[in-house]
Design a protein that fits this description.
The chain is an alpha+beta fold. It has 9 helices and 7 strands.
Length: about 280
């Protein structure tokens, strides 16, 4: 790690010689920066971050520079930030068997659909994107690996909530609320419950600009032993593309979910045979 690169005499005045409570506040701001970068990324400016963090511009730049030096975020030419190379390395070290098993399917889905493909799991009550695979030479569409939240507004999250059951969904509503990200977001609890029941019956979830404008997604469940939903696999595309290729993209997501489910079943059989 390179935390001492700047030298002891050039530290942030908010950190050096500060009481413990102030230091903890700066640590929380670091995590908040990474969270905002994962969600807003290329559209995020230092001034906007300063407002979000309730700090001054010089302290914000100091924290941004540390995160950039350490590889946790990366500055984009022309403005904005994106998740840096260190995050995937950390993710690799803590990857689950689920991710290792289905990764080839997620990669193939991205190539077949020629758009971004994802895997996600439930963690601490929220959908967490554990994989984000990009087709070659295509512009970026969608959320990034490590993104979490907005489960009621994303197809991946809907699949996971539906698979977890009505009681879990109600806990999610109570704990997180139903934030309106766009005018299309489902914000009424009864409507969400009904929508997720349909997802459970059909086996495919959709969201059409419910999380952000011009982002449309399809997702389907990846099941393990006893039909339990272990995760979700999906893809994202633009509103324009959805009109001409929606049916084909749904079929590709269903194919990918079936392939991933088969891989999970094979792995379970191998585990029983070796026991």
């Amino acid at each position: 790690m390179q935390a001492n690169r700047r030298g002891k005499g050039t530290g942030d005045p908010a950190l050096s010689e500060a009481p413990a409570s102030s230091k903890f506040k700066s640590v929380r701001r670091v995590f908040r920066i990474m969270d905002l970068v994962s969600q807003l990324g290329e559209s995020l400016t230092a001034k906007e971050l300063t407002r979000e963090l309730d700090t001054n511009l010089s302290s914000c730049y100091y924290l941004l520079n540390i995160l950039t030096d350490e590889g946790y975020i990366r500055k984009i030419a022309g403005g904005g930030y994106t998740i840096g190379p260190t995050i995937p390395l950390l993710n690799e070290g803590s990857r689950s068997d689920f991710d290792r098993k289905i990764e080839p399917v997620v990669e193939e889905l991205a190539q077949r659909a020629q758009t971004h493909a994802y895997a996600a799991v439930l963690s601490a009550g929220e959908a967490v994107v554990t994989q984000a695979k990009a087709p070659k030479k295509r512009s970026y569409v969608g959320v990034v690996q490590g993104f979490h939240g907005a489960s009621h507004a994303l197809a991946l999250g809907k699949v996971l909530l539906a698979g977890a059951g009505a009681e879990y969904v109600q806990e999610y509503i109570d704990d997180h609320g139903l934030e309106a990200f766009t005018p299309r977001t489902i914000v009424r609890p009864a409507q969400l419950h009904a929508h997720l029941n349909k997802v459970l019956m059909v086996g495919v979830a959709t969201d059409f600009e419910e999380f952000t404008e011009n982002l449309c997604c399809f997702a389907a469940p990846v099941k393990g032993r006893g039909g339990k939903v272990e995760g979700a696999i999906g893809l994202s595309t633009t509103a324009r593309r959805i009109h001409g290729e929606g049916k084909q993209l749904i079929e590709l997501v269903q194919w990918a979910a079936a392939e991933a489910t088969a891989l999970m079943a094979d792995a379970a059989c191998e585990g029983r045979n070796s026991a």
